[in-house]
């Protein structure tokens, strides 16, 4: 069975944990790597700066209508990762990002389970028509997770991601609202206790 997870708002206490996860080379290597100064790169905001930013800056980042950012928690309410939906209202799409920062939990379907919640947010709460991810070609676990959920390979984004000084292609993987509606009952059957 897949584990139960939940989404909640990001709290100030979550940010140092995210920084700690991103310091791990194995984690940042599959995520966005490090910048020229060696600092791990994140998407949407810089966790190193967010920990003690002003309330205005916090609100700007974490209450944005354009980029929805969620903390992912396990069944005990412990923070284990982060999900983001970047809204593309002109085309009723959302670009999804997902990170299970606790690498001791990788390959146990926390990612797949969290995706169901992110897709519910995107399709039900925000009424999008399509959700997509850019999966680096070297990131097999992410590709398997997307395929398991029902994402379809839509194209290849050439040299989109840099790792260790080399450029790699990313796979554009998408899921449409009607496809998700059809698959959702079967996916929920996989989650413990549902
Ligand atoms: C990618 C990521 C979110 C996946 O989360 P996860 O909880 O490990 O994912 P899941 O367990 O739901 O799915 C992983 C799949 O990869 C498979 N897999 C791939 N490599 C594996 C390995 N070395 N060991 C075990 N399983 C592996 C699993 O079997 C599973 O497929 P299945 O459902 O067919 O069994 C997580 O590894 C992560 O956060 N990585 C860093 C950030 C990242 O890469 N984000 C995605 C960018 S597109």
Topology:
Layout (H helix, E strand, L loop, with lengths): L4 E4 L5 H10 L1 H6 L16 H4 L4 H8 L4 E8 L4 E10 L4 E8 L9 H16 L4 E7 L3 H10 L2 E12 L2 E11 H14 L4
Parallel strand pairs: 4-5
Antiparallel strand pairs: 1-2, 2-3, 3-4, 5-7, 6-7
Helix pairs in contact: 5-6
Bound molecules: coenzyme A.
Coenzyme A binds next to helix 2, strand 4, helix 5, strand 5 and helix 6.
What portion of residues is helical? 25-40%
Number of separate domains = 1
Distance from N terminus to C terminus (CA atoms, Å) equals 10 Å
- Per CATH, the architecture is 3-Layer(aba) Sandwich
Examine the coordinates and then state which fold CATH places here, giving the name of the CATH topology: Aminopeptidase
Radius of gyration: 16 Å
Q: Class by helix and strand content?
A: alpha+beta
Please explain how this structure is put together:
The protein is of the alpha+beta class and 194 residues long. It has one domain: 3-Layer(aba) Sandwich (Aminopeptidase). Helix content is 35%, strand content 31%. Helix 5 packs across helix 6 (140-149). The radius of gyration is 16 Å and the shape is globular. The termini are close together. The site of coenzyme A (COA) has 22 residues, from helix 2, strand 4, helix 5, strand 5 and helix 6.
Throw out a few tags for this protein.
binds coenzyme A; alpha+beta; 194 residues; Aminopeptidase; 7 helices; globular
Summarize the structure.
By secondary structure, this protein is α+β, with helices and mostly antiparallel strands.
């Amino acid at each position: 069975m897949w584990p139960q997870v939940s989404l909640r708002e990001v709290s100030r206490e979550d940010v140092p944990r995210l920084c700690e996860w991103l310091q791990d080379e194995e984690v940042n290597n599959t995520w966005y790597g490090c910048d020229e100064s060696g600092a791990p790169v994140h998407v949407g905001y810089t966790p190193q700066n967010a920990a003690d930013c002003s309330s205005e800056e916090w609100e700007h980042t974490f209450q944005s209508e354009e980029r929805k950012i969620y903390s992912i928690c396990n069944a005990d309410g412990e923070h284990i990762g982060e999900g983001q939906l970047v809204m593309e209202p002109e085309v009723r799409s959302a670009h999804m990002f997902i990170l299970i920062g606790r690498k001791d939990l990788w390959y146990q379907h926390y990612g797949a389970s969290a995706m169901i919640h992110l897709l519910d947010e995107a399709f039900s709460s925000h009424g999008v028509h399509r959700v997509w991810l850019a999966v680096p070609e070297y990131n097999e676990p992410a590709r398997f997770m997307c395929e398991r959920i029902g994402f379809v390979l839509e194209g290849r984004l050439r040299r989109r991601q840099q790792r260790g000084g080399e450029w790699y292609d990313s796979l554009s993987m998408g899921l449409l609202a009607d496809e998700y509606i059809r698959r959702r009952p079967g996916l929920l059957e996989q989650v413990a206790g549902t």
